[in-house]
Amino acid sequence: MKCIKCSFEGDKYLIYVCDGCAVTQCKECGGFTASEEKCFALSKRKVILFCSKFREETGTIIDLMQRNRKLKQEIEKLKEIVTNFQENSKKHDEILKNVDKSNIEKKNFIEKLENQISELQ
Ligand SMILES: [Zn+2]
Ligand SMILES: [Zn+2]
């Protein structure tokens, strides 16, 4: 077996195929610890070994997933705020419309009164 990273050649006690990325590599290139190295040649191995690169990559993915979840929660909160704002501004618009209406009605009423007064004169 041969390490694809440094071309070091060795037997199954020295070279290991990563369980994550399936890359054949030596202890140094895979970043395996001494205790992990002892597991290399065990035929009925219960531990799963990942090289340092794979651990780094999956760590990044997990980190990204957590960040993504947080972002989604923040977006939901923002949506709520926007919805509340829209509802409030609708209510506000309606109040303004009603104020306009009543102003027009008052104006009309006053005009009518003025007309009647002028007719009386
Ligand atoms: Zn190597
Ligand atoms: Zn790997």
Mean pLDDT: 89
SSE order, one letter for each helix or strand: EEHHH
Strand content: under 5%
Bound compounds, please? zinc ion
- Which word captures the global form? rod-shaped
| Content-based structural category | mainly alpha
State the major sheet: 2 strands, antiparallel
**Helix amount:** 55-70%
N→C terminal distance: 118 Å
What's the total helix number?
A: 3
Number of strands: 2
Organism: Henosepilachna vigintioctopunctata
Keywords: Coiled coil
Coiled coil: 61-88
Protein name: B box-type domain-containing protein
Short summary of the structure?
This protein has 121 residues and is mainly alpha-helical. It is built from 3 helices and 2 strands, in the order ββααα.
How are the elements arranged and paired?
Blueprint (H helix, E strand, L loop, with lengths): L14 E3 L6 E3 H4 L3 H4 L14 H69 L1
Antiparallel strand pairs: 1-2
The structure holds zinc ion (2 copies).
Kindly describe this structure.
With 121 residues, the protein is mainly α. 64% of the residues lie in helices and 5% in strands. It is built from 3 helices and 2 strands, in the order E-E-H-H-H. The protein has helices spanning 27-30, 34-37, 52-120, and strands at residues 15-17, 24-26. It has a two-stranded antiparallel sheet. A hairpin with a 6-residue loop joins strand 1 and strand 2. The radius of gyration is 38 Å and the shape is rod-shaped. The protein starts with 14 loop residues before the first strand and ends with a helix. The mean pLDDT is 89. Bound molecules: zinc ion (2 copies). Keywords: Coiled coil. Residues 61-88 form a coiled coil. It comes from Henosepilachna vigintioctopunctata. This is B box-type domain-containing protein.
